[in-house]
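dude i think i finally got it to work??
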Amino acid sequence: MEKELKYKILNEDDYIDVFNALKKKSKFTVSIQENHYYDTENMLLLMNNSILRGRIEQEKVLITFKKQKDVNDGYFVSEEMEEICNLGTFQKILTGEKYILDILGSECRKIIENIIGNSKLILIGKSETERRAFYYEDMKFELDKTNFGKGFIDYEIEVESRNEKEARNKLNALFKELKVQYQIQEKTKYQRLLELNKI
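look at this
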């Protein structure tokens, strides 16, 4: 079960301030993630609070099926299944030479087929995220800058923690100290991609 607290940072200046504050507290890694989202033409996965995503990162591909269980004031609880995919194979999926369901394990494939029936999965859209990950005080902080295409960019911070109250207190204290403008995040990146691009 994945549990994450997510806040939207409202402007680039505040995003930079948060980055500068966090890098004083912890070493960090930087990664570029190219995310490709699949659904049926009539969005059956979306309607079932589910996401199927292929993520390319450092020439590796991770395919993730995520079923959202609950969202409460930016605290996302999801069940997640992940599979590693060869980059060459995934490139064939992107060009239509291979079908994404055919490379998934039987359990994951069965769950998706129960949702979509005879409908076919198609590539809906993609986004690119520049992620800076920090580890301190037994928590993982992920600071994201995501490009959704057509000039749409947003900023977000995610905290992976099973202790929602502690994670929220730490973020609120950080934002108060830096006078950061923020909003509680209630939508996934996939949902924002669809809205911003009017898909």
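The chain has six helices and nine strands.
im so relieved honestly
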